Amino acid sequence: MSTEKIVICAFISYRNTEHCILKCYFTTYFSIVFKRRGGSSGAKFRISLGLPVGAVINCADNTGAKNLYIISVKGIKGRLNRLPAAGVGDMVMATVKKGKPELRKKVHPAVVVRQRKSYRRKDGVFLYFEDNAGVIVNNKGEMKGSAITGPVAKECADLWPRIASNAGSIA
């Protein structure tokens, strides 16, 4: 947790004079909390969103689910005629289309761990994966399964420490 000082200033210009006066309205302290979601830690950077609502992704854990159907994205407020979309590290609400009967016909929270759509990292590298995949979690971000097949994106591992601990490889 970090504390930052913010000074809100405004330029006031007078119509008859050539110069401007800088006037500070108020100074305040506030704290920034990087734990925005349950179970996530670290800051979320802008990632290209490659999985809109209605996408079917692979389930990369050992819960018994094969496919996950995205029905909504957590934290998306929406815009008229725009489909909500998810990227790597986003929590989504999903249903199981193929898998164990006890998992099907229920809504589960899941986290996207891989996407085919390329996204840019801060060092300038563009990265994409072979498939779209996610893992089933609970509302706190703890995994329902105990293992993840395939690599997990570094952006997802930074946000979700419980997923990082179960990942075989982090790319």
TrEMBL record:
<dbReference type="GO" id="GO:0070180">
    <property type="term" value="F:large ribosomal subunit rRNA binding"/>
</dbReference>
<dbReference type="GO" id="GO:0006412">
    <property type="term" value="P:translation"/>
</dbReference>
<dbReference type="GO" id="GO:0003735">
    <property type="term" value="F:structural constituent of ribosome"/>
</dbReference>
<keyword id="KW-0687">Ribonucleoprotein</keyword>
<dbReference type="Pfam" id="PF00238">
    <property type="entry name" value="Ribosomal_L14"/>
</dbReference>
<dbReference type="GO" id="GO:0022625">
    <property type="term" value="C:cytosolic large ribosomal subunit"/>
</dbReference>
<dbReference type="InterPro" id="IPR019972">
    <property type="entry name" value="Ribosomal_uL14_CS"/>
</dbReference>
<dbReference type="InterPro" id="IPR000218">
    <property type="entry name" value="Ribosomal_uL14"/>
</dbReference>
<dbReference type="InterPro" id="IPR036853">
    <property type="entry name" value="Ribosomal_uL14_sf"/>
</dbReference>
<keyword id="KW-0689">Ribosomal protein</keyword>
<protein>
    <recommendedName>
        <fullName>Large ribosomal subunit protein uL14</fullName>
    </recommendedName>
</protein>
<comment type="similarity">
    <text>Belongs to the universal ribosomal protein uL14 family.</text>
</comment>
